[in-house]
Amino acid sequence: MGKKPESFRAALVQLRSESVVEKNLEAAEAAVRTAAGDGAQYVQTPENTSLMVLKTRALFEKTGPEEDNPAVERFSGLAKELGIWLHIGSVAIQLSDKKVANRSFLYTPRGDIAARYDKIHMFDVDLPNGETYRESKNYQPGHRAVIAELPWGKFGLTTCYDLRFPALYRSLAQAGAQFVSVPSAFTEQTGKAHWHVLLRARAIENGVYVFAAAQGGAHDMGRSTYGHSLIISPWGEIIAEAGTEPDVIFAEIDPVQVAEARTRIPSLRHDRDFKSPSDAEVVAVKEAS
Fold it and tell me: Would you kindly state where each structural domain of the chain is located, as residue ranges?
């Protein structure tokens, strides 16, 4: 028999990031220190940890390339000092004069970058309440899924709007991911409608733990985010949840539960290739009816 995987303590940091980078970094660092001080071995912050702005000019004025970004070096040092796996949900990284990446960083306890992930799906949406988002205007989408090897198993990285594309999570699970991250800044409107059900569905469909640190509350740029950071078991149970205020939540994570959930519902083994209907077949069905 193989050795039973060790359990670990995970923490999610819920923030209310604003337009002042240094203020955001200080808030994130303080919360990460709180998490590590309470025994967390893996700590995740939300999307847009270092900056939340709407205007293109402000975004580019306060964003730099990875090698000159104050958040990247600061969090590397923090991970090393605290001896934890530190997952920064995302930082805006300038790629050119016209585009930035929405990039996650996973740091080892030595402060090295174990993985980078650029958000793949862009949130280009007109909401019923009049809010409009065009992430593709300023952000360059990523083009590859990412899995990192943690001491407790394989870890798939995703970000916010990726949550609405289940094929991404299926591919991560089929590639061996036992845990997936969804650091987010979900809008208040869409969060109330879909946040819990989508996160639970991704966990249930794939038999994975889901870690989703979130932004929460009214931000100084005039928008509100939903909060409710969640840790969800592979069976779809919510095992830790925040409210809307900045907070730190914890859970004990047992990797054995991944294997147990996948044994009870072995859907990953039952995936089959299939042929999608062609336009001609759709037309034929319409004509027949």
Answer: 8-288
